[in-house]
Design brief:
alpha/beta, binds zinc ion, 8 helices, about 325 residues, 2 domains, 12 strands, Metallo-beta-lactamase, Chain A, 7-stranded mixed beta sheet
Length: about 325
Amino acid sequence: MDCCGHEGSASGDARFDIKRVADGVHVAVAAPAYKVNSNTAIIESDDGVLIVDTHSKPSAARVIVERLRDITPKPVRYVVNTHFHWDHWHGNEVYPAAYPHAEIVTNQLTREAMLRKGLKRIQDHVRQVPGEIAKLEADLAAARSAAERERLEANLRLARSYLAEVKALQPALPTIAFERTLKLYRRDREIQLLHLGRAHTEGDVFVYLPKEKVVITGDAVIGWTPFMGDGYPEDWATTLDRLAELDFTHIIMGHGDVAGRDWLRTFRAYVYDMVEAVRREVAAGATLEEVKQRVPATLAPTYEKAFSAYGDYRPWRTGVLGNIERTYAVVS
Ligand SMILES: [Zn+2]
């Protein structure tokens, strides 16, 4: 399973829309592509650049390195990983290769999770992608239209080159790890790295720029229904309450476009209401199947529209059912 559950019908290789969020602060918003849909934040300071997250493969991170040259001549000094999921750190190796002084930074729990769970994921991909390639080959053989054949051929090329990349991956683990807070005082900017508790994973890192009023959330807040497979649904809303205490106006998320505080309120309320609804059902003795029947219907009037901004790419219902399964397992 990938970080956010189900892969949608995305195709094509890594493409990013680079947007300015504040002076010297940019985000590369990923267009949904083959195995690439996560964002990179770019923070310039007097002595270099800090990058947040590195995508799912080195070639995607290389696209960012290329685009960086249009933004600033300064070298990358720090690369921050927000959590251990593959789609946020498999591109790490590109930065120390391009910038020999670059340090990779994360929370201690995330570094341990990379070692314990993340490295294994690389081997899982080496084993699983040949099956994906075989399926694409079969689909291609059965394709009826030229357009369909063209789409499948493009995906087949990407899958084959992804397999070669993941086999050759040189996992670049963080070189600096912190417990709860690490503050970088650059001459022109303060950058805070914060662990506020468990949410999407055990070691989620937020990057906060107090002067610019920008926060970078990784996948603790995203633009569609969260993936909770490795998450802590019961802790999530409380962690987001700590986040909400910070003073910011712009949220750069792990996936999806830049958002404001209103989206944090909606997202937090969804997590809270979903967990409470599952708890109530479990307390009343409902089976998992019954909970999966009833809770989406309870939540839909309030949340379905807000969480359907990415339509078929990340269908709301599939996401909610995954969240319910995870929550049911932890509360019962
Ligand atoms: Zn992700």
